[in-house]
Amino acid sequence: MVVRGAPAIGISAAYGMVLAAKAAVDAGHSSACSKTMLVAVNAASELLAASRPTAVNLFWAIRRMNRVLEQLLPTLGEGSVQAAETFIKGFSAEAVAIHDEDLQNNLLMARHGAELISALAKDGQAQPIVTHCNTGSLATGGHGTALGVIRSLHEQQLVDLVYVDETRPWMQGARLTSWELQREGIPCALIVDSAAASMMARSPRQGWVIVGADRVAANGDVVNKIGTYGLAVQARYHGWKFMVVAPTSTFDPAVATGAEIEIEERPGSEIVQIGDSRFAAEGVRSINPVFDVTPAALIDYLVSERGVINRPRRDSIAELKLGVD
Ligand SMILES: CSC[C@@H](O)[C@@H](O)C(=O)COP(=O)(O)O
């Protein structure tokens, strides 16, 4: 949990594989043969792949790095200093490209999402927004998914107030999102997760729930931080619009529905105490799934770098023609 947030997890895995390659070169005193390199990078990618099960960006980035590894390995031959330098340069370039592309995609998604909301805003009125977890520069290549859209809306003076779910149990909203929003001068208020429905009910205006995603299934179901599904139900009930913002590196065309996606379960210690301070009854059983599935039917808009899909469904997602590899 030092690095968290789907795109940031993928980017870090790519850089992690580069670090493993560099270590293999250093261990061979500035050179490495193709066999040593393969063993070292494979070991690192297996370790990285085992770090978190849900965010698909992790596996997507590892696959992408492995493809480049395959192309570059023959250039190492039996190992020379010069071949090792060229190899590391090429391998690092792919990790940097993954990082740069994510940032560019964040900027595109911010534009698509904000354009849509501004087009739908009656009389250019500023919107109340609920957001969940952390989807900003701390979770991505640098601008943010949902938070990127919120930033762009703020630039157009279209943000009335962002209600920031604290995001139990790891408090990404309280610790990270509120920090990012405050730093940018975006009006925000921290709420406990269970207050979101009341905020919607008492708001004089219907607004937006804007969240990110950790994996989008082929039918448009979205897996995101636990509590997202509840927000989608509440949004539909109160007539608020529900927007998911995720780059196509978060889409997984290999899984048919959200039910097939592994949901990370974390230790109960995260919910029976805060820091070292225990407040739950001794011995109580706890269940701590940290993601949930929001059915596609509850999603009004799915924003990727390729544009906005209204009411995502299997056919509209298939039109993106994302390869299964
Ligand atoms: C950054 S985009 C969306 C998600 O990755 C984010 O909402 C989220 O669920 C992060 O979970 P985390 O457990 O903090 O890695």
From TrEMBL:
Gene3D superfamilies: translation initiation factor eif-2b, domain 1 (1.20.120.420), Translation initiation factor eif-2b, domain 2 (3.40.50.10470). It comes from the Bacteria. InterPro entries: IF-2B-related (IPR000649), IF-M1Pi (IPR005251), IF_2B-like_C (IPR042529), Initiation_fac_2B_a/b/d (IPR011559), M1Pi_N (IPR027363), NagB/RpiA_transferase-like (IPR037171). Keywords: Isomerase. GO terms for molecular function: isomerase activity. It holds the Pfam family IF-2B. The keyword Isomerase applies. PANTHER family: METHYLTHIORIBOSE-1-PHOSPHATE ISOMERASE. Belongs to the eIF-2B alpha/beta/delta subunits family. MtnA subfamily. This is S-methyl-5-thioribose-1-phosphate isomerase.
